[in-house]
Amino acid sequence: MDSFGGNLYVAVSDVIRNKDDGGRLRTCLETLHQEIKAAGSGILRAAYSSLSLPLTLIVRSSTFLKKNPAAQVQVPAASNDRVVEVAVKCMTAIFEQGIQGDFSIDVLYPFADLLTLKKENSSEELRELSLKCLCALLENWPGSVSDIQHEPDGANPMDAIRFIVYRCVTYAGEEGPRGNRHIAANAYKSIKLLAEHFPLPKLWMPVLPGCIAEFSRTLFTAGNGINMSGPSLPASSVVVEALGAMVAVVETTLNNQIVDKVKPVSEQNPVDTLDALISSMKTDGEYNGAQKGAVDESRNAPQPSTSTPGPDGSWEWCAYTATKLEESFGKCLPSLQHHPAVSVRRKLGEGVVALLSNCSVALEASNDTLLRIVLTLVYDEWEKVSSPCCKFLDSLSRQMSSSSKGNGQEDHPLAKIVELIIKQRSGNLRKAIENSSQEGVAAARQLASALEIAGPLRVHQLLIGSPVRLSAFCTSITRCFAFDPTAAPLLLKSSAEPGPHLKTPNRSIANGDASSTVVQGASTPKKDAGVATDSAMSSAVELPRMPVGLFLMNESLYRELARVARVLGWMAYCQDEESRGLHYVIDALEEVLRRNMQESMHPLDAGSAVVVISEVLFGTYTATSVLKKPVAKSNVQSDYGSETIQTLVMGVLDAYTSLPLWSAKTYNDEHVAGDPLSTEALGQNAMLVRTLLDSVGTFARVVGKSFAEGGQILRLALMPMLERLGDPCPLVQAAAETAVDSVCWHCGYGSLEQLVSANGDYIVDGLCSQLRQIHLYPHAPHLFAALLRRARVAPKLLPLLAEPATLSLKGVAIVSRAITERYTPAFLQAMLEIVTCAEKESKNLLEESEACAQALNARVQEVESKKTHQGDANDMEMFLNEPEDDFDMEKDVLLEPREEEQLELRMRRTHSTSVLASSVAELSGPLMSVKDIRVSLLALSVCSMALMALKSSSRCHSIDDQIREGHVSKHRLASNPTPPKPEMVLPMLHILWNPLKSALSDSRIAAMEGALNALVSVTKSGGSRFLASRFKKDIWPIFERIVSGKGQASGRTSLRLLEEETAPNTVMRSKLSVMSCVARIAEEEETRGVFKGFIRPLVETLVPLLGKSQALPIREAASKAIVSLAKMDPDVVWFVLTDVVAAHGSRELWTSPHTEMLPHQKQLLPRIGGERGGKMEGMEQNVGAYSKPYFLTKKLAADCGERAAALLAKVEAESVEWHMKIDELLE
Asked: Using an 8 Å Cβ cutoff, are 354 and 254 in contact?
């Protein structure tokens, strides 16, 4: 006893002594449980017989008392379930130690007794602990199968095991999906362990039907209730154990070794028998009863009798059982392949692979169902689920590949099923998708994996080599990617989500993977210093991606369908060195594309074909391999697509261009030829164009740097792609950005700027061609906007664009524009993009010039300062050291070579921007006053922006010319050519002045407002000194006529326009526009001088608009204009307002903000109605000492006095300098 420890001995003794007292016995058992857990395996092995005896007695006494409560037992306290529970825990602790004692089959008998306890007369905890203890025993079972070959004491061990199995099945069935999952899981686990430790067919044949029925019930409930929620579904642990138990029992009973012994010898070839069996299948994989009977008759084997055969292990029983298993498997297993629990899918894959590997002979009728499950799970997202399926299919693929090469090997029995799946699924994918998303995912996975397992040669024989089958397949898979036309209006204004991004711009063909889209092997493009970079520098949207608006489609389903196309492309590509199969596939898809364009009711059917083409070609890039086998071809490189792929991509892009795909309208423009489209049609076109752009980005990823090398491929899609960058539709614009980023990312360009710079000549030719033929390219403004605004390539593109664009503009005469009058707005929009970019560029150049001039001035001051500090003492030394050649002595500071290069480049850029702006302004000027209001407004905007660009370029040229003359050596000036002189602003302003004046006199209020806005820009660009006399002569009469309410009518004004002009709202808008223009000009110090010659008449004209009789917007605008004019000449404004206020009587005439500074001011001012003015009668006569009639009347003063007083106070509050004439008079 000392060998296993005194504490353990004492605990056992206490258990034996307290067998009659339930409370003490439970305490003793708990102490024994702790001692067992603390003891080592060696001690427990030595003491097993001593420990097991009292515990077994407790268990047997408990079961006996449950059946006969009045019976006399050895342990009376065992009637308490809590005591038995602790005893079972002690047994579990012993078995969990894994001790290797003298186990025999006898140890199972207590469990047979314990499992006789029913749910009604035993606690749930006791049943759970009993099954847990049985699992612990079986997991560490040291016995052998020979233990049950004999019958100790006349008992049959097999009956005991069958009884345990029966009770485990009963326990699991009683719990159901809502019961205790631990009881059900341990019950199934016990059955699995019993089957593994006692793999005797005779033992399991009688209980096989009952076990399969219970397993099927649990699995069917779990699989068909996936879309449900709540406690009605079995737990995943229960499903896992049920799958394990089912596989273990079937493997034990119907493995190939056993069936081969009882299967009758048949003269018929097994492969022929399998052919007959497969031919009896329906199109969906099920069997027809009559056909199955015909197949059975074809076998030269004894036919099973009509009665159910007994479990004797005969061929009849095996065939009958296999039929029942086929039915069970078909109902409960396929649905589990979509179970959300990874553990369930993993166990399903392992189990199905085991059945196909070990029971394929008996389960011949179920091989189709089982193989489809493997083909589905092989593409599972979790590697631990797909790994066993990959290993099995790898072996199957090698065998099929060997047989297809004609080396004498017979086809694998499963090869026919793979071929059948290819034939079936290639034609009914769309039907599977319509049934449910899960069924569609399964069908797509099965087809993709079947294609890969079959291999390139067999796929060519079954599919690609047959034009009829290939055409049908291409049509079928294209229909799977059908778009939903009803979603088009909803997506029209949406940019949609871009999707995941690639972080590494690398390519790898040999080791690609279907689940890996970020490729390996190259370096990230480096950023250029000083160059504005786009988002493509750090990442790019991963293409291909799921298109928006697909019908009956989600992300997972699209991914699986795309995998089918990719695998097909890879199989066709690997067929031979020339990849003829891939040419066949692409040709068939292009034919589908053309047919959809001609026959379809909406363009989205063509988009479906575009998606499939992209995915097929992308399959040649990813080298997808479900078996993880690297496959490479000799004509494939790491960073460049093969010549075959380049040729195919070029052909596809050419087909896109030849078909009316790129020209699809995504917005309505009344000035573009054609009837306006509905919202549905616009949305469908936008979805189609987005698909095309994604396709271009995908091709760039597939071909790599070869996409841009040589320019043959890139230029097929570059201009349409860049044009869509400026598309008004957000969906198309975002897709264009994604495509451009993909091209830059995969072709080695750091940004869109670098892409445009590298293809500048081609782009400039395209731009000029579109300018010359604007009626053929109504989307040209979008292209200009995309390049000049979004791409930020103006510094590099404008110098290239200047000369050819100027020549193109000179070739576009007014007569030719009249022929295509409706396209003139598009032409002007393109011009507006050019001058907007030129204006920004000229501003940047001016800032650079000013910065350079400031730096040079600082250096000059530094040199002069050094000269001053040296003094006269060094004059003689400087004279003696003076060089003989004093050619450059007058220039103290010279530019460095780098600065000279920058100066020359800046002067050339200045010339380019000025030439473009001048050409555009000269061409657009005559259009300022045309009948088409939109044309007129666009022309005014173009000319305004052009003048601003010329102003900056003129100033920039002046500064640079001074720098060149003052800080460039005369040797350099003499040797270098004189830079071209840019177009100046004042000559162009002189040319545009008359058209602008005509636009100001336009009777249309919108045109007049646009002309006033243009006048502000003209004033800023021309300056007050140049325009002062022109304003007084030409502009002031127009302003006076409008503000005074005399209107804009001219001799050619029609009656309708005259009526519109005299409408109250029109009159108000005219006055507001003029006063706003006056305020804007007067606010700027550089422009307010244009009013110098007529500021007093202008103020006197505005004062009547301050009256209470005027509308509030008029009073506010007049007040703002007068205050702005006070900044230029406060004397005049103060005098006029003082007269009005004095006449109104609201304040003293002599009050002045500077009374202290001007003490004798009152002696200089005329007193209204006083000495200088003479006596007035009713103030209807002239007021003040003026030679002409004065504007002020008593009525006007009463109407405007209050607001004039408020404005006077505001003018007086400003710190202004009074007119010098007053100072002279005061002296």
From this structure: no
